[in-house]
Q: What sequence folds into this?
């Protein structure tokens, strides 16, 4: 009888997770533009990075084949989330005036949500369901309160999955 309420809670919490973490969790295609800084490293907004379709470095912003970075010169970091490096002497050229002269088209996110993230989401959803009156709100002596459960889940999510501004 509470299916609609539960679906709304799940959708809202999922959206809140992505908002608090400043990124999309499910695998999706993204196109992003950056201002080149003269280095060979760039941090993309979404991770884990599954694949890179193309990187263009183009002060004219025409994004044609002449400005495409060779696929063999693109390295996706295994140790730093969202980090992409260029090999072969390539850099994300700095322009004056500074413009978004780098375009990256890529796929990032989880095809399967990690267990700890899924568990934390379920715990928050249960607390919100309890608070909606969907269940009897009783506390067992020595047990965590619903607010404690929700706070713990949010800390896990934010500590492990929030995008870090570089």
A:
């Amino acid at each position: 009888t509470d299916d609609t309420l539960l679906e709304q809670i799940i959708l809202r919490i999922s959206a809140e997770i992505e908002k608090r973490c400043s990124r999309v969790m499910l695998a999706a295609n993204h196109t992003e533009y950056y201002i080149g800084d003269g280095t060979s490293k760039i941090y993309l907004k979404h991770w884990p990075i599954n694949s890179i379709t193309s990187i263009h470095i183009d002060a004219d912003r025409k994004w044609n084949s002449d400005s495409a970075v060779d696929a063999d010169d693109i390295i996706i970091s295994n140790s730093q989330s969202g980090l992409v490096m260029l090999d072969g002497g390539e850099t994300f050229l700095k322009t004056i005036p500074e413009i978004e002269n780098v375009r990256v088209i890529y796929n990032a996110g989880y095809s399967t949500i990690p267990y700890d993230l899924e568990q934390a989401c379920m715990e928050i959803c249960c607390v919100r369901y309890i608070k909606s009156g969907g269940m009897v709100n009783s506390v067992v002596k020595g047990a965590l309160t619903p607010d404690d459960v929700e706070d713990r889940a949010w800390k896990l999510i934010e500590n492990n999955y929030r995008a870090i501004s570089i």
